[in-house]
Design brief:
alpha+beta; 2 domains; five-stranded antiparallel sheet; two-stranded antiparallel sheet; binds iron/sulfur cluster
Length: 471
């Protein structure tokens, strides 16, 4: 065997291992199409190995290898950094910024506008008369309709959802913490304070932590959610602390693959409970350090969290409106604590999401209510963004009795945090060719259509046969 044949066989063995590994990981992820492609690829590589040993076929084999090497080298052409993403939310400011009024959010309208109250007549008579009829229907059916109806209201998962949702409600009253009157103001340098805060947040359960200065243009203009009394409805939101510690928790992949079935909503609710705990605890920690600490979780929002997280260097916002974070993609929930304690802000990052989303569109194609735009970004409140149709999205939630999450589950960035997907993610973040080609390769390998996958037995649910065809 000469040197050339030996080298080709070594490369061939490496390629065989790569295809086999891909097939193995895809099988574990229940990706049937990708598993088949991985196996076919591995078999083709074995055949190529046989051809290497036939002297007359050497030119053909060399041609294949040369094509492969050229493709691999092309992936090393670096992408220009996305300057907009590197500026965080402000990078997408294209007009005069206008703060979002929380009173207009679906949750606030649904929960805070009770017929016969002053806020009800103010909102529907003076601000948005056109929303009254549809909101009244939604209020009648409930935001999730009949909880878990897509799974015949499978009690263990629905009970998990309700149990978890009750936690932020209990903790919400503890969200706003002034400095403890008995606590001296901690004498820490911003560097030391940042080191402690980030490690503390990770220690108590956050998966990723970032820090940013709060952009006043992102803060809600007026309070719309009134969980603990009507007096705050419409209150102008101001005088917030200037720093935000933003925390991310990973949604379990084994739950998310069931979207839009009940294991997903049980996991969303679980993380809302966890986030309420994390942010409240950290908020109280700031109070005992002599500073304000305002927990931002599902029972106390002063600011939308995806752009805040982007500012804190925790990811980019994707087409479907979720934050896409390193390691976990869209499978995350975000929480924050606002504080006066001087901290060192992180810098926003670019993961190649904007370019990838431009050609991917998998979430938009799979959304059962067609709520995710297929086209370009539009200007909303002065910022360029892919604008989700929340009304139709929430209408779908009430049909299935869960928070759907198909767009989270199908996103290529949301795949498990394994070596394979981290490796691919690295190229998407840094390589020009990968940002253009990988969305198409992803569609070829994994398909474009969403199908829920099998969950572990303890989460298993019974499908409601009348509803399984609505995704
Ligand atoms: S599914 Fe595709 S288009 Fe949608 S957010 Fe994820 S990467 Fe972007
Ligand atoms: S949650 Fe479901 S209905 Fe809503 S945008 Fe995502 S895929 Fe569409």
């Amino acid at each position: 065997m000469n040197f050339l044949t030996g080298s080709l066989l070594v490369v061939n063995f490496f390629l065989f291992s790569a295809f086999s590994y891909f097939a193995f990981e895809s099988y574990r992820e229940q990706e049937v199409r990708a598993t088949k492609i991985g196996i076919i690829g591995a078999v083709c590589i074995i055949l190529l190995g046989v051809l290497i040993l036939i002297p007359q076929m050497k030119i053909t084999v060399l041609f294949f290898f040369a094509a492969g090497i050229i493709f691999f080298l092309s992936l090393l052409i670096p992408a220009k950094p996305n300057k907009k993403a590197l500026k965080g939310a402000k990078g997408y400011l294209v007009g005069k910024p206008q703060r979002f009024d929380e009173r207009d959010s679906i949750f606030a309208r649904h929960r805070s506008l009770i017929s016969g109250t002053k806020q009800y007549s103010t909102f529907y008579n003076e601000i948005y008369p056109e929303k009254e009829e549809h909101d009244a229907k939604r209020r009648q059916s409930g935001i999730l309709g009949i909880s878990g109806s897509i799974d015949n209201e499978y009690q263990p998962n629905v009970a998990m959802m309700h149990a978890s949702f009750s936690m932020p409600m209990l903790l919400g009253q503890q969200a706003c913490n002034d400095p403890d009157p008995d606590a001296p103001i901690a004498n820490l340098s911003p560097e030391k304070a940042t080191l402690i805060v980030k490690n503390l947040a990770r220690h108590i359960g956050a998966d990723l932590v970032g820090i940013t200065k709060v952009d006043p243009d992102l803060i809600y203009s007026n309070q719309g959610e009134i969980h603990y009394g009507a007096k705050d409805w419409g209150r102008e939101i101001k005088n917030l602390p200037p720093y935000a510690v933003v925390m991310i928790t990973e949604m379990n992949y084994g739950h998310v693959i069931s979207a839009p079935h009940t294991p997903t909503v049980a996991e969303s609710a679980h993380l809302y409970a966890k986030g309420a705990y994390l942010s409240t605890l950290l908020g109280k920690w700031f109070s005992y350090m002599g500073y304000r600490g305002i927990a931002e979780h599902s029972r106390n929002y002063d600011i939308p969290l995806p752009p805040l997280a982007a500012d804190a260097g925790l990811g980019e916002v994707g087409r479907q409106g979720y934050l896409i974070a390193p390691k976990f993609g869209a499978r995350v929930r975000i929480f924050a604590v606002l504080t006066d304690m001087p901290l060192i802000p992180d810098k926003p990052i670019s993961l190649g999401v904007e370019k990838f989303c431009k050609s991917c569109k998998k979430c938009a194609d799979s959304c059962p209510s067609k709520s995710i735009p297929q086209g370009e970004k539009v200007i909303y409140n002065g910022f360029a963004k892919w604008k989700l149709d929340e009304e139709s999205c929430f209408d779908y939630w009430s049909k299935v009795g869960t928070d759907c999450s198909i767009c989270m589950a199908i996103c290529p960035f949301s795949r498990p945090n394994t070596f394979l997907h981290r490796f691919v993610g690295l190229f998407v973040a840094k390589s020009k060719i990968a940002q253009i080609l990988f969305p198409h390769i992803d569609n070829f390998l994994y398909g474009k259509k969403w199908r829920p996958k099998t969950v572990v037995p303890w989460l298993n649910y019974q499908r409601n046969k009348n509803k399984t065809e609505i995704y």
